[in-house]
């Protein structure tokens, strides 16, 4: 699916209740997990010790941090939509967020989205995006919820 491009609140609002698209698949490899562990100081063995995880983990592998999966939202979102004519974009909140399953190292993930709601708050475009982070080949999403963004149009 090609990237959706919107230039105004009215163009964005036309998609309310509709699917917006899906990102490309992204590989979650051990290097990405290790870099996230270093950035967040979360070096729990289930994420960074492949030998121990192979023996002791129910996944028989290391897994991505849940917050690593969450942190991919801006990157994956930018593959789905391009919003022009804005001064800035602000993350406003997360609702109904649930981690559904682990992302095993070597898996690929993508985000699928739907415009849950949109409103105009005195010139600020508030969007509520239903999202799911899917794991390739799995039925259950790794993460799902509603992300709320504020777009400040020029």
Provide a concise account of the structure shown.
The chain has 154 residues and is of the alpha+beta class. The protein is 27% helix and 41% strand. The protein has one domain: Hotdog Thioesterase (Thiol Ester Dehydrase, Chain A).
Topology:
Elements: E1 4-6, H1 9-13, E2 19-22, E3 26-27, H2 30-40, H3 45-48, H4 50-56, H5 66-71, H6 73-80, E4 81-83, E5 86-99, E6 108-121, E7 124-135, E8 143-153
Parallel strand pairs: 1-4
Antiparallel strand pairs: 2-6, 3-6, 5-8, 6-7, 7-8
Primary descriptors:
154 residues, alpha+beta, Thiol Ester Dehydrase, Chain A, 6-stranded antiparallel β-sheet, two-stranded parallel ribbon, 6 helices, 8 strands, 41% strand, elongated
- Per the CATH scheme, the topology name is Thiol Ester Dehydrase, Chain A
CATH superfamily, by name, is Hotdog Thioesterase
What is the share of helical residues?
25-40%
Q: Class by helix and strand content?
A: alpha+beta
Task: Give the beta-strand count.
Answer: 8
Give the helices and strands as they follow along the chain: EHEEHHHHHEEEEE
Q: Could you name the CATH class?
A: Alpha Beta
- Proportion of beta-strand residues: 35-45%
Regions with little confidence, pLDDT below 50 for 5+ residues: none
Number of discrete helical segments: 6
Shape: elongated
End-to-end separation: 28 Å
Pfam families: MaoC_dehydratas
InterPro entries: HotDog_dom_sf, MaoC-like_dom, NodN-like
Protein name: MaoC-like protein
């Amino acid at each position: 699916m090609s990237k959706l491009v919107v230039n105004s609140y009215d163009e964005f609002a036309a998609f309310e209740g509709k699917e917006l698209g899906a990102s490309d698949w992204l590989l979650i490899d051990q290097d990405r997990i290790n870099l996230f562990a270093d950035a967040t100081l979360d070096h729990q063995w289930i994420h960074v010790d492949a030998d121990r995880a192979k023996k002791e983990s129910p996944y028989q592998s290391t897994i991505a941090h849940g917050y690593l999966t969450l942190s991919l939202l801006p990157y994956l979102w930018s593959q789905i939509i391009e919003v022009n004519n804005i001064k800035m974009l602000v993350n406003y909140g997360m609702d109904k967020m649930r981690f559904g399953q682990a992302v095993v190292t070597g898996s690929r993930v993508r985000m699928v989205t739907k415009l849950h709601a949109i409103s105009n708050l005195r010139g600020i475009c508030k969007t509520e995006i239903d999202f799911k982070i899917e794991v390739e080949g799995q039925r259950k999403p790794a993460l799902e919820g509603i992300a709320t963004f504020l777009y400040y149009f020029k």
